[in-house]
Amino acid sequence: MNQKKPVVCVLLGDAAGVGAELIVKSFGRKQKAAENAKVVLLGDVRVLKRAEELVGDRVEYILVRPEEIRASEKELLMVDAGNMDPAEAPFGKVSVLCGAAVIEDIKSACNFYAKGYIDGICFAPFNKEAMRKSSGSITSETVAFKAECLALGLPIDEDNGEMNVVDGLWTTRVTSHIQLTRLGEYLTCDKIISMIRLAHKACRAAGIENPRIAVAALNPHCGEGGLCGDEEQTMIKPAIEEGIREGFHMTGMYSADTVFIHAFNGEADVVVTMYHDQGQIALKLKGFSHAVTIEAGFPHANRNSRPWNGL
Question: Assuming Cys at both sites, which of 40, 97, 155, 188 could form a disulfide with 307, CB separation 3.0 to 4.6 Å?
Answer without folding.
Answer: 155
